[in-house]
Amino acid sequence: MRTTPPPPLKPIEDITNGLNIPREYVIPYGRHIAKIDSRLLDALPMPDGKLVLITSMTPALSGEGKTTLTIGLTQAFRTLGKNATAVIRQPSLGPLFGAKGGATGSGLSMAHPSGEISMHFTGDDSAVCAAHNLISALIDNHIYHGNPLGIKRVLWPRVSPINDRALRNVLIGSGSKFERQEEFHISAASEVMSILSLSIGLDDLMERIGKIIVAFDKDGIPVRVADLKAGGAATALLKNALHPNLVQSTQGAPVFVHTGPFGNVSIGCSSLIAAKLSLRLSDYTLTEAGFSTELGAEKFFDVVCRAGGLKPSAAVIVATLDAIKIHGMDNLLKHASNIEKFGVPFAAAINRFSADKDAEIAGVIKTLKDKNIPAFIADVRDKGGKGGIEGAEIIMGLCERENRFKYLYGLDTPIEEKICVIAKELYGANEVVFTGSAKDDVKDMVRLGLSTLPVCVAKTPKSLSGDPGLTGAPTGFAITVKSVCPAAGAGFLTARCANILLLPGLPPHPNAETIGVDKDGNVTGI
């Protein structure tokens, strides 16, 4: 098995000192990893820097390389003498051992130590799983001991960090008072993960955990984590996970790697507190959002920016020749139109691969510029920061342009209309079909006073539509919403479209078959 030796890394103190982080806020995790105490945010009354969102067109099977571009462009900014930091999500063990593999970038634009980041890292995902499943255990324990809260319908699933299709539909508590059919979700879809991503302090975290709706009683009254007296214990498991993780890139740029909600079934962004810290510590913060503009970018703008009072200065849409060959230029142009709807200045980046032909790339760049869309070639995988200089210069120019950032919908917009606006404006749908159960869910959300929350739509990332086989920039299709669920602690509603999987499975030959450890203890095969 071929092993790529890790690059020489700086001591983590060099990275924290470069950001002028006081030593008392640095929590070292070995030589090259540190957590930064979340309380630092309150101690930094500095003006915020520029926030740049990296999103993409509808991806090819191998992805568009948003993480690589986020890190590579950060290195390019620093090559130009600018104080820039990358903020990315923590990889999930599910895709790591499944079909996708690692998610720490590639080539000369990676986050390191990549093996540790991809595995247990600082234990944040394990803390999310433990806190989530503790709540599940306390629900069933409550029912077993007499059910004084009168729990009738349990909403709260269990979670697993691993893709395990056998857990999608299981019988729990066979023969007991709480026997029922239940499902497991991937931990990246857990509301606890979303809460960790959106909390900006310990008090905020505890309050959000307590608001989680886990069940309904016989009268349809919600039962929350606070009612079970489970909030304190769950928060205790998460208190260290709240602190953002700081590492470095291949070329020594600071990289925050914190929280990992999926972009297709959750909000798809790294933590709000990491972004806010980076904005206080850096002139430029580059962050990614999962999958393409209608998924991660929409949720970043409408959910995360709303929650954190963020105003992005610019956006970059990443494209590859592979994705353009699958989905066409119309798809890329549709994603450009999507970003325009939010009023943020943007550019398109063609993520270059060694096999790409110059003439094909030149044709794409010309088409974009003919549409008055700024575009550049990014060759950061093979060249590191030097391969992103043009892009960094273009982005700096975008950050100085007039910015008319706006949300896609108002919070007072009715729930069904919010979903329709997203589907019609960003997906290209001409109709949204709500199943009978979804309509009942909407009535419940209104009854519970949750109708003013933003909406997180869960759908396939393989198409702008809800059909993964429908490529390009389709129009005239219908989106079917099968349920609308409360994420009251996180502060949004989740609308689940037909056929969306909340616990992926493994392929015939998963990456787990090739992952190992060499004689020096380095993880191989990622």
List descriptors.
globular; Formyltetrahydrofolate synthetase, domain 3; 526 residues; single chain; 25 strands; four-stranded mixed beta sheet; Domain 2, N(10)-formyltetrahydrofolate synthetase; alpha/beta; Rossmann fold; twelve-stranded mixed beta sheet; 33% helix
Describe the structure.
With 526 residues, the chain is of the alpha/beta class. The chain has 3 domains: 12-122 and 241-399, 3-Layer(aba) Sandwich (Rossmann fold); 124-238, Domain 2, N(10)-formyltetrahydrofolate synthetase; 415-497, Formyltetrahydrofolate synthetase, domain 3 (Roll). 33% of the residues lie in helices and 20% in strands. It is built from 17 helices and 25 strands. The strands form 6 sheets. Strands 1, 2, 3, 4, 5, 6, 14, 15, 16, 17, 18 and 19 form a 12-stranded mixed beta sheet that branches. It has a 4-stranded mixed beta sheet with strand order 20-22-23-21. α5 packs across α6, α5 (124-144) packs antiparallel against α8 and α7 crosses α8.
Name given to the CATH architecture of the largest domain: 3-Layer(aba) Sandwich
Tell me, what's the shape?
globular
CATH topology of the largest domain: Rossmann fold
Count every beta strand, where a strand is a DSSP E run of 2 or more residues: 25
Largest pleated sheet: 12 strands, mixed
Per-chain topology:
Elements (H helix, E strand, L loop, with lengths): L11 H7 L7 E3 L5 E3 L13 E7 L9 H14 L4 E5 L4 H5 L7 E2 L2 E4 L1 H5 L5 H21 L6 E4 L3 E3 L9 E3 L7 E3 L1 E3 L4 H8 L3 H10 L1 E5 L4 E3 L6 H8 L6 E5 L4 E4 L14 H10 L2 E5 L4 H16 L5 E6 L1 H7 L1 H12 L5 E6 L6 H13 L4 E4 L1 H4 L5 H11 L15 H13 L3 E4 L1 H12 L7 E4 L19 E10 L4 E6 L18 E2 L5 E2 L2
Parallel strand pairs: 3-16, 3-17, 4-15, 4-16, 8-11, 17-18, 18-19, 20-22, 21-23
Antiparallel strand pairs: 1-2, 2-14, 5-6, 6-14, 7-12, 9-10, 12-13, 14-15, 22-23, 24-25
Helix pairs in contact: 2-15, 5-6, 5-8, 7-8
